[in-house]
Specification:
Length: about 130
């Protein structure tokens, strides 16, 4: 699920099982939402992910169907346990570029500080 927070920030909330179809649907949603405008700040919130059935190739395919932004995009990935951290690192390794800067955090407050966004705003929108 993608939630627009304000004119520069959005939240990508993921839950349940994440598989190839989930990533494809996310790419389609993001391409639709960002057809005219890229959001420069993102929180990737995966607290409710129960499991992942992905290969590195799936994430690489996701990258090929997501256009490279013309401006710098900052994404804060919130990983709440070791499993989520490992998945976030894989996503970061494949997706990061000169225009896509990503950091991994263990809580919304740290992510919000790095994004320079109100933590309460992110917390309320990510629930």
């Amino acid at each position: 699920m993608v939630t627009i927070v304000n004119e520069e920030c959005l939240i990508l909330s993921m839950s349940g099982m994440i598989d190839t179809m989930t990533l494809l649907e996310l790419a389609q949603d993001m391409n639709r939402i960002e057809a005219d405008k890229f959001y420069i700040k993102r929180l990737v919130y995966v607290k409710d992910v129960l499991g992942v059935s992905l290969k590195c190739e799936d994430v690489m395919y996701y990258r090929t169907i997501r256009p490279e932004p013309e401006i710098v995009i900052k994404s804060a990935l919130c990983a709440f346990n070791d499993f989520q951290y490992g998945m976030a690192r894989m996503f970061q390794a494949v997706m990061e570029s000169d225009k896509r800067i990503m950091e991994i955090f263990k809580d919304i407050e740290s992510a919000a500080q790095w994004l320079n966004v109100d933590a309460d705003l992110l917390r309320n929108k990510s629930v």
